[in-house]
Amino acid sequence: MRSHPHRPDGRTHRPAALVAGAVPLALALLATGCEASTIPTATDAQADDTFSSVRFTLGARGDIQVAGMSRTAVTRAGDRTVSGGRAYPFDRPPGKLLVVLRHWPSPSGQRAARDAGRLLPPPEDAAIESAYLVDTGDWALAELDGHPVQWLRRDTIRVDATKAGAVGRTHLTLSGPRGRRPLPDGRACEGVDPAVNRYVVLPEVESGAAVPEVLARLRERCLDVQYVSMPGGGHRGTVRSIEIPVAGHTAPVAELPPPDGSPAQGRLPGDKILTDPSRPTRVTVIR
Prior knowledge:
Elements: H1 16-20, H2 22-31, H3 42-48, E1 53-59, E2 62-67, E3 74-82, E4 97-103, H4 110-115, E5 127-134, E6 140-144, E7 147-152, E8 156-160, E9 169-175, E10 198-201, E11 209-210, H5 211-220, E12 225-230, E13 238-245, E14 253-256, E15 272-275, E16 281-286
Parallel strand pairs: 4-8, 8-12, 12-16
Antiparallel strand pairs: 1-2, 1-9, 3-5, 4-5, 6-7, 6-9, 10-15, 11-13, 13-14, 13-16
């Protein structure tokens, strides 16, 4: 066996070929399943940053809670007082998802005790819209009280909890695709001016219809949607009714399907009405 030559200082000289051979040796260990390093790669770091899920919980008086594995992807975007059912035009940066939660202001002291038995707050209260920006990275599925309602990407979703009652809670969950194929966005109404009233043809809406089906009809007419979750009245997770805002004060909304025993007053599917785009269309989903 050939020995390694000795240097004048007495130490053994190792050929450079052995040092260079350490690299293929490490690769061979990896190929055979041996771990050569535990340092995370760039791919691992990117996977850790992937959006998973976040859940918003709120009541009629606010008390908003944010939870979930991706809650660090959520940023507050402010609170605004709104009246007349109008929506505040929050800024939405490119690449972000905007969540707007509508509720009544939080009572305090004697006011809280007086409102404890009320289903709805006094009419003199102005509603509050609380906004949040969510960095989902890609598509996210929105679920209202556990029921899927729509896929979102670089979009806005509004939830109205003002009809939740004194003890009702509304839950909005956003989750990543997880391999499922998201539906196309379908929004092509970027040029619509929210400050200008315009005419739309009322769609056909049946109680118990699937939410995506009704949502597609509303978006074809460039109507912004605000979800409301209420119990009873049919199959869970389906649409109970929609309310499309009508410009003016004599006819505030066109409700579809029309309530039994209520005069339609020319607001039937296929009729043309003048809408107020500053007030979102309210889609009531059965909880």
